[in-house]
């Protein structure tokens, strides 16, 4: 079989990238890797095609070479292809090196028994050191790229197999003193040195001359695998969080070095640090962390080696280098940083965070550094949050949060303000203009005031509750702060009960210091102010979270009054949830009377069954057993008898269960007739359902409440008539309809499911005017046109046309609303917008690419919607 053509490979690669798992499960996956390796040697494929094949092997090595033998064979074939390349310039040498390295590392074939490993490692080391860059590896123009690729491959292999280059430390030190690529060599030497120190410390052995230069291994010759076999742990070279793991420090403390080994280690570290200024900022930061991690906890290795670098880096403007300096401070503390250094760093961070032109990510970085500043001598127990001792209120005055800040910046500044409030509790000065605690209370009051706006965005409410949670977590032991916070949140709920889900989430997250008093005041707010009917569901949702055994009479009185207003299924279920919470809290007599009344009065049979079930449980079970019966079940209990099984099945049949929706709902074509807009809904089912009830809820209350749609029976594969859903807009605007389905399965279970929301577009609200007699249409349109002013407005815009022109656009989108037509260049269009608005369009003097549109309307608010609609007509076809 000949090589695969370029077009065939392009198709196969596209199919593979679209879904690798599906491709590998198909029949074409069996020989994909073998064909790829063989076609890399074909002269009929161009180099760009071969590079794309190698790119696939770099991205998906686990799929192409799923086990160690396959990875070994692939690496061997790739190395053979590399050797067979002609000496002319080629774009394949670097991808082949990377692909062979990736195959061995990802396939788990890297080891002393692998022939490909014994070939690849000396080859990479020779290319990196400049020994094997002869005619067999291309012209001189490729030497530097090949050398850089070899360094990257060696670093990747050392990361995957710690200790692999432990026997080459001396050689790497010698190469660092020569001319060449400093950055990749420095990073590789630092990584290999760190890994060797950890492995030798675990083995309780010294460096054993590893830092002394030795001979470079040759291809096929022996390689030192001792450290790689002992270093089975995968050590990550990236910097961890500042409170560094104590495991590495304790491990390195067991490493005992002779005076000669300690001297060689200090010389190696000093050599790396002296050349660090030649590296990029990111590479310098990684180098500093690797060396700092290697020396932390190592006996006899003073951190004074880093002091010359600190003199250079304390004034750096690079965030990566500043982060590395702080990491060194966390590692060595007062052994490396004096009190003056600490004060300088704090002042730098504070002033930099106040710069007005600072981008948001950098601003958050500086604030994070201040919040997690590693002090030399921190007070308090380890892990406790506290502001640095040298960071006072005067220094941080420019970092106080404001309502004008970005939400993320505001929360970070608020966190710092909370820590300052902890420090300022005992040393508040009398002459101070405003204490941090007073500023904090005013800020929280401002956040609550913005969150209380009915028309305000939801993000403002979310920010208010995030700030409240942060204050409750940081200042949990300060009642002087939590008391006004509790009362302020109660006032917020009184002003906007629709935030009940946010309150429930806050109560689930905060501790008892705020949670318990907040529950009491919220329960008082609910039972003392029932509110209007639209707020009842929020009151019931809140009461289900805060109801307990206290204030039973007030709670039951509220529920008795609310039962008469719970007319739909959702409110009845919310009311029963409160009854369930009271049951679990051990509320007795009065609740039994309420449950009996609900069992008789509720209109929904499911609600009556639930009330009856709760009454039976209350009447026949003691409080401990009642809590177990109503609590969540972690595992289904073993059925002791058929009676128990029958009762459990009966209870399951009584409950409405949530299930994945076997229903697909979509919008049909627009019906432009009738007194109100009507949506045509197409419904399909995946399995047979009975008594389907679709319930719709309009977000933001743009429309009047929508009635439910009922279907007696639906079968899969059987065509159904469109379902009609009349709309009653309160103003002409697009909306989003939340949809919930309630249905019965063939087994008799009642289920409910949430369906994807339906989007009502602006054009779905269009209605035509009644058609006047023939011959009077122009006069009728002119009367409508004149009636829009002066109450309304007139506007002009340009409507782009598609390739089919104005006549096709009007016939497809605006045909029912055309009042006067002079095709193909002029149309007068009249549209009625519910509830009582009108939209009139004059499309005249059409050109090839568009048509000028003059519009009048008596509703200013629809102008942006009309503009977006007309500009989108050509794109819609």
Oligomer state of the chains in this structure: single chain
* Helical stretch tally: 35
**Percent helix among the residues?**
40-55%
Radius of gyration: 37 Å
How would you state the average pLDDT, rounded?
82
What does this structure look like?
- With 877 residues, this protein is an alpha+beta fold.
- The strands form three sheets. Strands 9, 10, 11, 12, 13 and 14 form a six-stranded antiparallel beta sheet that branches. It has a five-stranded mixed beta sheet with strand order 1-8-7-4-5.
- β13 and β14 (850-857) form a beta hairpin.
Q: Which secondary structure elements does this structure contain, and how are they paired or packed?
A:
Blueprint lengths: L5 H13 L1 H6 L6 H8 L7 H13 L1 H4 L3 H16 L9 H15 L7 H15 L13 H18 L8 H8 L5 H21 L23 H5 L15 H8 L5 H16 L6 H15 L11 H7 L5 H14 L6 H15 L6 H12 L35 H18 L11 H16 L6 H17 L4 H17 L4 H10 L2 H17 L7 H11 L5 H12 L5 H17 L3 H13 L3 H16 L2 H8 L11 H13 L1 E3 L4 E5 L10 E8 L3 E10 L10 E6 L8 E4 L8 E10 L5 E11 L6 E2 L8 H11 L5 E8 L4 H9 L4 E5 L3 E8 L3 E7 L6 E8 L5 H9 L6
Parallel strand pairs: 1-8
Antiparallel strand pairs: 2-3, 3-6, 4-5, 4-7, 7-8, 9-12, 10-14, 11-12, 12-13, 13-14
Helix pairs in contact: 4-7, 6-7, 6-8, 7-8, 7-9, 8-9, 9-11, 10-11, 11-13, 11-15, 15-17, 18-19, 19-20, 20-22, 21-22, 21-23, 22-24, 23-25, 24-26, 25-26, 25-27, 26-28, 27-29, 28-30, 28-31, 29-30
Summary tags:
5-stranded mixed sheet, 6-stranded antiparallel sheet, 35 helices, 5 domains, alpha+beta, 14 strands, 877 residues
Question: Brief overview, please?
Answer:
This protein has 877 residues and is α+β, with helices and mostly antiparallel strands. A hairpin with a 6-residue loop joins strand 13 and strand 14. Helix 6 (68-83) packs across helix 8, helix 21 (436-451) runs parallel beside helix 23 (479-495) and helix 29 runs antiparallel to helix 30.
């Amino acid at each position: 079989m000949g090589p695969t053509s370029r077009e065939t490979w392009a198709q196969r690669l596209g199919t593979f990238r679209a879904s690798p798992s599906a491709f590998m499960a198909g029949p074409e996956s069996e020989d994909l890797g073998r064909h790829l390796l063989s076609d890399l040697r074909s002269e009929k494929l161009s180099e760009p095609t071969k590079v794309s094949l190698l790119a696939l092997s770099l991205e998906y090595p686990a799929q192409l070479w799923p086990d160690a033998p396959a990875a070994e064979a692939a690496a061997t074939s790739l190395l053979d292809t590399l050797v067979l390349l002609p000496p002319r310039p080629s774009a394949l040498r670097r991808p082949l090196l990377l692909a062979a390295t990736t195959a061995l590392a990802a396939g788990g074939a890297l080891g002393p028994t692998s022939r490909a490993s014994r070939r690849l490692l000396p080859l990479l080391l020779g290319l990196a050191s400049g020994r094997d860059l002869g005619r067999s590896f291309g012209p001189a123009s490729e030497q530097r790229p090949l050398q850089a690729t070899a360094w990257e491959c060696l670093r990747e292999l050392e990361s995957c197999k710690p200790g692999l280059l432990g026997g080459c430390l001396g050689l790497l030190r010698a190469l660092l003193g020569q001319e060449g690529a400093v950055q990749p060599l420095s990073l590789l030497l630092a990584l290999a040195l760190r890994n060797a120190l950890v492995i030798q410390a675990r083995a309780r052995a010294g460096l054993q001359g590893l830092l002394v230069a030795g001979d470079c291994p040759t291809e096929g010759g022996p390689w030192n695998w001792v450290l790689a076999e002992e270093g089975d742990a995968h050590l990550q070279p990236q910097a961890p969080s500042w409170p560094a793991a104590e495991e590495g420090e304790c491990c390195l403390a067991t490493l005992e070095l002779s005076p000669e080994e300690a001297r060689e280690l200090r010389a190696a570290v000093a050599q790396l640090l002296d050349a660090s200024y030649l590296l990029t900022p990111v590479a310098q930061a990684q180098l500093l962390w690797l060396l700092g991690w290697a020396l932390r906890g190592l006996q006899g290795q003073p951190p004074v080696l880093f002091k010359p670098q600190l003199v250079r880096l304390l004034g750096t403007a690079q965030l990566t280098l500043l982060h590395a300096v702080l990491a060194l401070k966390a590692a060595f503390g007062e052994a490396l940083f004096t009190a003056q250094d600490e004060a300088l760093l704090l002042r730098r961070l504070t002033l930099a965070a106040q710069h007005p032109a600072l981008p948001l990510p950098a601003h958050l970085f500086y604030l994070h550094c201040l919040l997690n500043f590693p002090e030399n001598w921190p007070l308090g127990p380890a892990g406790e949050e506290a502001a640095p001792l040298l960071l006072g209120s005067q220094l941080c005055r420019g970092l106080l949060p404001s309502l004008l800040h970005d939400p993320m910046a505001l929360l970070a500044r608020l966190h710092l303000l909370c820590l300052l409030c902890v420090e300022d509790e005992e040393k508040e000065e009398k002459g101070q203009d405003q204490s941090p605690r007073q500023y904090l209370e005013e800020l929280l009051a401002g956040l609550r005031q913005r969150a209380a706006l009915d028309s305000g965005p939801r993000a403002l409410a979310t920010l208010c509750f995030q700030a409240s949670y942060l204050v409750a977590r940081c200042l949990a032991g300060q009642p002087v702060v939590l008391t006004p916070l509790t009362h302020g949140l109660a006032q917020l709920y009184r002003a906007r009960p629709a935030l009940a889900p946010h309150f429930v989430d806050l109560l689930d997250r905060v501790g008892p210091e705020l949670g318990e008093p907040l529950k009491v005041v919220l329960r008082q707010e609910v039972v003392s102010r029932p509110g209007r009917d639209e707020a009842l569901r929020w009151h019931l949702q809140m009461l289900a979270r805060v109801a307990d055994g206290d204030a039973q009479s007030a709670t039951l009185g509220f529920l008795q009054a609310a039962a008469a207003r719970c007319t739909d299924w959702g409110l009845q279920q919310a009311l029963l949830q409160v009854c369930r919470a009271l049951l679990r809290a051990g509320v007795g007599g009065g609740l039994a009377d309420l449950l009996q009344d609900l069992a008789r009065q509720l209109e929904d049979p499911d609600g009556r069954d639930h009330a009856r079930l709760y009454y039976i449980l209350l009447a026949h079970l003691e409080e401990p057993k009642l809590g177990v019966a109503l609590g969540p079940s972690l595992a289904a209990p073993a059925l002791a008898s058929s009676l128990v099984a029958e009762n459990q099945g009966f209870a399951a049949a009584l409950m409405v269960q949530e299930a994945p929706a076997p229903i697909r709902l979509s919008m049909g074509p627009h019906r432009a007739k009738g007194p109100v807009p009507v949506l045509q809904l197409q419904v399909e089912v995946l399995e047979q359902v009975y008594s389907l009830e679709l319930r719709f809820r309009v977000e933001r209350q743009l429309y009047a409440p929508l009635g439910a749609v009922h279907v007696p029976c639906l079968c899969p594969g059987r065509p159904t008539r469109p379902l009609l859903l009349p709309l009653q807009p309160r103003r002409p605007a697009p909306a989003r309809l939340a949809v919930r389905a309630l249905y019965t399965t063939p087994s008799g279970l009642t289920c409910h499911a949430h369906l994807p929301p339906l989007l009502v577009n602006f054009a779905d609200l269009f209605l035509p005017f009644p058609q006047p007699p023939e011959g009077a249409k122009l006069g009728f349109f002119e009367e409508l046109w004149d009636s829009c002013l002066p109450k309304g407005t007139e506007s002009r815009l340009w409507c782009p046309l598609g390739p089919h022109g104005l006549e096709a656009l009007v016939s497809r989108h605006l045909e029912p609303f055309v009042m006067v037509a002079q095709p193909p260049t002029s149309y007068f269009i009249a549209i009625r917008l519910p509830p009582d608005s009108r939209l009139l369009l004059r499309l005249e003097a059409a050109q090839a690419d568009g048509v000028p549109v003059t519009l009048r309307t008596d509703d200013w608010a629809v102008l942006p919607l009309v503009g977006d609609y007309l500009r989108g007509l050509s794109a819609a076809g």
